[in-house]
Design goal:
By secondary structure, this protein is α/β, with parallel strands linked by helices. It has one domain: 2-Layer Sandwich (Double Stranded RNA Binding Domain), CATH 3.30.160. The protein has 3 helices and 8 strands. Strands 1-8-7-4-2-3 form a 6-stranded mixed β-sheet. Helix 2 packs parallel to helix 3. The longest helix is centred in the N-terminal third of the chain and has 24 residues. The protein is elongated and about 60 Å long. It starts with a helix and ends with a helix. The N terminus is likely disordered.
Amino acid sequence: MRSLFSLPALLIGLLLLSACASSLTRDIEVHTETDPKANLAAYKSYAWLGSAGLLNDPQGLWKPKGFDVDREIRKLIDSRLQAKGMVRAGNQPDLLVGYVLGIDMDALELKKNPKTNFETLHNVPKGALVVVLVDADSGFPVWVGEAVANVKTSHSDAESRKRLDYAISEMFSQLPR
């Protein structure tokens, strides 16, 4: 009888944990595009092309609190590519990897009051991460992943890492191999 009681309690606990995770990431939208002529299974190695950040934050509201965002993103992308069977190469890689992270703390959206049907502008800070895989020989992109989300300054470092991990995991789950 004791084991029957602990199994439902465990299942309820797991359900609650998954609900917390989904509420943390529910605003993140991920899209990918693949060159229909690209044979992604043929790519075995990659090297970093570079990264860029675009920040519109005139009031200084967005700041990475306790971690290096560039290092975290690169680490997450490295792990996803390696999980897909690719190795990081120093010389003559098959693919070049780059990303751009953009933050706009002054982004505005229309919000409708349901009682009055009146629309007003509200500040809704936005962020986007775009990852590009480029064929090293031709210089043309073969795959692009994009994640767009609301920027929340109230997140802890751990929550920010989980949001980045979710966005990058979702992107690379759509990378055909």
